[in-house]
Design brief:
The protein is an all-alpha fold. The protein is 48% helix and 2% strand. It contains 7 helices and 2 strands; from the N terminus they run H-H-H-H-H-E-E-H-H. A two-stranded antiparallel sheet has the order 1-2. Strand 1 and strand 2 form a beta hairpin. Helix 2 packs across helix 4 and helix 3 crosses helix 4. The longest helix has 23 residues.
């Protein structure tokens, strides 16, 4: 009996080591495939950036508690009982590993963007000809019609902010949309 228990313990340890070794040798394809799986499976609840559930921001690697790769894989495979996090029994072990790889890669700090802008000019455009304060507010300046941008850098990534500046109407959250109601 003791021999079988020792062999089982060794096998579990080796499987864990194999899982970690696979994660350490992830390729760009693994990350991309994990991203595709995330968008198809996880984004429905967690949101495209992974930040729709309170206390969790998968895009920045913030979980309710620190998790190892194996623990994270276990949550993906088995879900969390008595919560909205369902099990994913149809995912292969390889798909789960790629999801974990994507989540870890996505959460790694990105190199700081090179600051080529001029803060004073940006402020002048925001407050002047950009007419941003007609809808938005920063600190105590501006309107409350659109989203308050005082802490936008903590909520959105630089690429998302840039996209919003270039195409402001491309993504407007439901709580910031205007509706025209016409009676029959």
């Amino acid at each position: 009996m003791q021999r079988h228990t020792t062999a089982l313990t060794l096998a579990v340890a080796l499987l864990g080591a194999v899982h970690l070794a696979n994660a350490q040798h992830a390729t760009a394809f693994d990350v991309e495939d994990g991203a595709r799986s995330f968008k198809q499976i996880c984004a429905n609840c967690h949101g495209p950036d992974g930040n729709l559930i309170a206390g969790i921001d998968l895009g920045r690697g913030q979980f309710r508690r620190t998790l190892t790769d194996n623990e994270l894989a276990g949550i993906i495979e088995n879900g969390i009982p008595n919560t909205a996090m369902p099990a994913s029994p149809n995912l292969s072990e390889e798909q789960v590993e790629r999801l974990v790889t994507y989540l870890r890669a996505n959460a790694e700090p990105k190199p700081a963007a090179v600051r080529t802008g001029d803060a004073a000019r940006g402020k002048a455009v925001f407050e002047g000809k950009g007419e941003c304060t007609d809808c938005h507010r920063v600190a105590t300046l501006g309107s409350r019609t659109g989203p308050d941008l005082s802490r936008i850098g903590l909520v959105r990534r630089a690429t998302e902010i840039e996209q919003s500046l270039l195409e402001p109407k491309a993504e407007v959250q439901a709580n910031n949309r205007f509706y025209r109601v016409v009676t029959p």
